[in-house]
Amino acid sequence: MPSDTPSVALGDLSELPPAVRRAFEAHPEDFAPLPEPGPDDWLNWHTEPPQSVGNFWVSGPNRPGDDQRDKFYILPLGPVPDPARLEAFAHDFFTIPVVVLDPADMSEVQLTRRARDTGDQLLATDLQTYLQSHLPRDAYAMIGLTSEDLYPSEDYNYVFGLASTSERTGVFSLARYDPQFYDSTAKPNPVLQRERAFKILAHEGGHMFGIGHCVHHACIMNGANHSEELDRAPLALCPVCLRKLHLLVDFDPSERYRALADAYAEAGLKEAESFARRRLERLSAPPQPDP
Predict the structure, then answer these.
(1) Rounded CA gap, 148 and 174, in Å?
(2) What is the rounded distance in angstroms from the CA atom of residue 246 to the CA atom of residue 31?
(3) Residue 10: left (phi > 0), alpha (psi -120 to 50), or beta?
(4) Which of the residues 8, 75, 87, 108 has the least number of beta carbons within 10 Å of its own beta carbon?
């Protein structure tokens, strides 16, 4: 069996309690296969080697609690809407303490800008440098949040977000989540904006936990080149990526799904809520006897 198949990528789960082991079962109804990339999709432009759980672990990912670094910080880089909702979601998703800091005053920070038809963009790597110089001593990781559009380098049109798997910092932009960014006549869609913000926070945050782009299932850790590809991705970690997070945090899978289901219900994200409740039902069902 190829080493990049999901069952092999998960590694040995035999030492886990049966109730926990079930959290990493890839039921076809819950975890779709990775779709074939379209001409503009991420995997048509980028070669992504599979990251198995074993490869993830031997890479030496940062662990929450090491050197008393146990908090996930969110730093608004200027005014941004509703950071408290993102704080609550990040806590439920990553299951470690989350703190939203007061907005940073960016007026005197030297940042590279460029002009585009859609408006000015900030160089995301400049913001990464700023974040790394302002990382709190007890930060496991810190993500910056901006309302301005971002680009990672001159050869890219834009980027939703950018994160480092080793430096424990990341940044993401809310600019392109509003349908009116592309079409001024489009109707506002706050639920879609909320879902996109949750997805990028989960994705870039996952990178800060050392999780690479996923090629095992449809997963929030799949790369995304554009809004349509982001919208297709589920707001969920596949079993392989969930196991990576579990190795670092050792959360209770049922409690995590229960908290996420309630959060998604409150946010109006019906598909994500349905998934989380279905997973919770599977974990709560009596175990089947061995044949």
Answers:
(1) 7
(2) 18
(3) alpha
(4) 108
Would you call 154 a catalytic residue per the annotation? Answer: no
pLDDT for residue 2: 41
Residue type, position 26, single letter: A
Domain extent at residue 157: 62-209
Same domain, residue pair 113 and 204: yes
Q: Tell me, yes or no, whether 70 and 13 share the same domain.
A: no
Task: Write down the residue that tokens 């039902």 correspond to.
Answer: 281
| Shared domain check, 5 and 126 | no
User: Cβ distance 220 to 233 under 8 Å?
Assistant: yes
Residue 279 pLDDT class (50, 70, 90 cuts): very high
Q: What pLDDT does residue 60 have? A: 94
List 148, 195, 204, 273, catalytic entry: 204
Cβ(175)–Cβ(78) under 8 Å? no
pLDDT digit string, tens, across residues 146-161: 999 999 999 999 999 9
Q: What is the pLDDT of residues 196-212, one digit of tens each?
A: 999 999 999 999 999 99
